[in-house]
Amino acid sequence: xxxxxxxxxxxxxxxxxxxQLYALFAEATSFKKKLNYCDIFLKKAKQEKKTDMxxxxxxxxxxxxxxxxxxIYSDSIIALTKDKSNVHYPAVAFEIKGDFYYDxxxxxQALDNYIQFAKYAKKHQQKEMISNANYTIGVIKxxxxxxxxxxxxxxHNYTYTKQHxxxxxxxxxxxxxxxxxNVYNDMELGDSAEYxxxxxxxxxxxxxxxxxxxxxxxxxxxxxxxxxxxxxAIDSMEKYIPYFENLNDYDKLSFAYYYNGEAYWKLDQKExxxxxxxxxxxxxxxxxxxxxxxRKAYIQLNTYYENNKDIAQQLHYRNxxxxxxxxxxxxxxxxxxxxxxxxxIPKLQAEKETILAEKKHQQNTFKKVIIALVFLLCFVFIGFxxxxxxxxxxxxxxxxxxxxxxxxxxxxxxKTAVKGLSIPxxxxxxxxxxxxxxxxENGFISNQITLNSLAKQLNTNPNYLSKIVNHVKQxxxxxxxxxxxxxYAIEQxxxxxxxxxxxxxxxxxxxxxxxxxxFSKAFSNSKGINPSYFIRxxxxxxxx
Length: 544
Prior knowledge:
By secondary structure, the protein is mainly α. Among the domains are: 361-403; 412-542, Homeodomain-like (Arc Repressor Mutant, subunit A, Orthogonal Bundle). Helices cover 79% and strands 0% of the residues. Helix 12 (210-226) packs parallel to helix 14 and helix 13 (230-246) runs antiparallel to helix 14.
């Protein structure tokens, strides 16, 4: 029956045109549905032997998958277009492969693909792509400690991007400023970093980009540190650290943690400094990657515990430093040589060829621009439609949550639900009564609750408790506890004004979750919206 239904859906979908199929793909909320529409799109394109649509199908697959299949579909694009390249292909395929390898911290392969990305971008004078290629190659230079080389490339890229603002996105333009501010901070040139931070902050406000605005503000704290303004540095960074913690942006957080630690260290508040250096280590454990200069956090940890004669902690962080060094050193020699040989030397010749190519193809420029604009507008309209529908869905879910009330299950439903359980009825009734008391007394908000601990508390065994919860509550034990916590959190947010002043991290802790991630995931699974969105909308209704 299920297979038949899927076949019917596919038959209906394949009759749609490519724009309709792409819209369905963009609107799909599950990974499985997205892959299904990718598959239908590509099959249709192959049946109709439309090369441009086949390429679009491969690209849809490559941006949907997160595993090694990204490389397979990108290579398919490259194979079809390497000898007949155009303004989009195979450049975007090399960029996608570069991003994939970069995210996997495979910098050798990332660099190889970014260099190819730059080659095709320059061949077709794609200004957005050229700037992105400069930026990504510079990021790899900076990550491997080649800050002087990164600075030269970032300076060139900022000049190029500034000259072509009308042809690039806001993100690409602001990235070119961010890159300079970052690398000047790496070089401890606080005045230069401050200049670009202030410029970037002003431009981010003008272009209405909050994330970059906060990034430049956070970065200014680092610049203040290099200017020996330690109190100012701490105030600036601690103000914006929570914003990036909510985004789990560990690249930015690792720098903020490190420099905040160094500022406290300079103020001789070493206990506070150590807490931030430990957060640098936490970031490394999550990402398995750090920029080279951040290894100094481990040096400070080692020094602190050596002075305090805490051998165990000293050994612990020494081992962590060894692990970090093994990651940092694995690619450095290759990258230094490869960047110089394959990117720097051909750069001047490539710029010359770019000018000649631009002059040669100037008669075709207008036509290409019009085609590109039509293509871009199609995707913009599709994107707007998707975002509008997504916002409407979120608003509807918010209203449903606001208007919903906790429903009580009638006793006869509970009895029906446990029929057939191989547990004595008197034990079942006893446990149900105790569970009702447990819920009424909000016992679930303790973060120490486990199946075993609750079973012990209710004077029963875990097996009985698990079976009864599964049948009566129609969910697993962990889902049962999480659902109770989410309902409790929502009720408190609706009725207790104090809760609206809490951070999401504080709310998660108040209702028994051990971290923000598990709270957000449970909330989203239960209510279909993120807790941050729910709280923001709730504040609007209460005019907080």
